[in-house]
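Hey, can you fold this?
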Amino acid sequence: MNREERLKAILDLLGEAGRVTVEDLVDDLDVSAATARRDLDALAEQHLLVRTRGGAIKQSVAYDLPIRYRNSMQASQKSTIGATASSLVSRGDVIGLSGGTTTTAIVDALSSRRDLMEPHPDASLTVVTNAINIAAQLALRPQVRVVVTGGVVQNHSYELFGPLAASVLAQITMDTAFIGVTAIDPVFGAMVNDEGEAAANALMAARATRALVVADSQKIGRRAFAMVGGAGLFDGIITDDGITAEQRQAFHDAGMKVITPNS
């Protein structure tokens, strides 16, 4: 287990139990006590937990909202996609994040980057999001400037959509937008289950210099109700190594770049 995976595991343990001890981490993560203490200190510096004597307790607002997201399917693949997406982000960027479990994994990856989270008088990153869980996770990080679109909350995805969201998005631009989807097909493009979400996600993608779909390989070739857009809107897709050679070629033929951890 690498450091990023350990930090995420610690946050998961805190989300479930509310507190952890160094001894818990030594047993559960198979690390030394010194490593456990360093990991807790690193998370405390990012305001993701509160250090106590011999362990830590969770921050009051960092876990309650996103808890259903951490129990999602394909968690390992989403974590890998999150790390890949994070590697495409540079200090000073303005990025867009739609709602969804995969974009939440991007937040986890960004939050473990020391170059973005170290104290600095200026914001190291600006995040535009229409997802209230993502805004809540980032609100405790003073190094990140968070812009929330406003709008009506979609209760199953925590996303904001409607005229208010569209009004804000129409007034801003982003370097890169990462858009989570329910399904993606080389021919039909990216899709979600709700037409309001689709409209907000499409506008966010359109306002970015580079727009990328983030989707685990289980979503490739599937269909959903509402179209977000295809190669005319998106520059590419970030997915996991489960994508087949045939699927990769189909996206290439459609004009979309495929980005995987080993590409």
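Oh, and this one too while you're at it.
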Amino acid sequence: MLLTSYRLGHLTLPNRLVMAPMTRARAVDGKPTAETATYYAQRATAGLIVTEGVHPNAVGQAGPSMPGIHTDEQVAAWRGVTDAVHANGGRIFAQLMHGGRIGHVEVAGHHPVGPSAVAAGTEVFTPAGAAPAPVPRALRTAEVAEQVQAFADAARRAVDAGFDGVELHGANGYLIQQFLSSSANQRTDGYGGSVTGRIRFAVEAVEAAAGAIGPERVGIRLSPGGEIQGIVEEDVPVLYGELLKALPDIAYVHLVATVDDEVLMGLRKAWPTAFILNPGGQIGPRESTREQGERWLANGADLISYGRAYIANPDLVERFRLGLPLVSADRETYFQVPRGLIDYPSYQH
């Protein structure tokens, strides 16, 4: 089933493999480079590519050498990427990633903001190396709308840059999940407290993006119960069940397998449109396999996303099609080094 076609919103995908978003940290002055365009174009046989996290505004930048999409210059640079992918027959969404409390003034020139003045209790990357995550400035109620609007503005800019759509990053401990979290979100206004309050920011951000570019061009990535970057979530099945009920009927939800199969299956049944599953769970050392993907398709997923497997296997679709072995990526070249981006070859017969 992985190699069969699928209709996703306004797109026809030639297969059910999705290249998952992965931070690669090689932007220059907030802009993707010619190598970025080559990197994604090499992987254009994927049914869908979702880019690395792209900050929707300046305060949302989570780490050094990460790209944005909030200036005209950034839009122009991304157009070179989307043109390259489309020229190779591919389809590509931009992942809109607001770091929230995961950030540093030395990275973005702005002090990080979050739902509450609660530090992540972990380290963040800065130009000088790892540093303790700072205590963010809690957003005032009136300011929350500005961060919601940033997702709508970035979605419009993404379409202007030639992207086929956007995915909002609601996983891995960044701003959207910070609002969902009972540890990061200690607000007492309408954006905190109850489940209804904690899901409100995510719903408003998705509605804003969908209103800007159309719901068929919008997805959201979630990691239910994922304990990363200081995140704790309570009543996960209820929290995410209510979130999925409150979201508009966008193109897809993209779930990371960070909770047990029973909960994931319940969420699959609750969601009316495309359901993307990433079987890899929290960040770890092993690439997901074709067998894992086929198992989840049999269990009701529509598309399967692969992250680490795509780093070293630009021709992952053909490797799965022909039963060829996969190459493991060098973890030392994941971020901010010259090697490890475009120098993994396709399989040599």
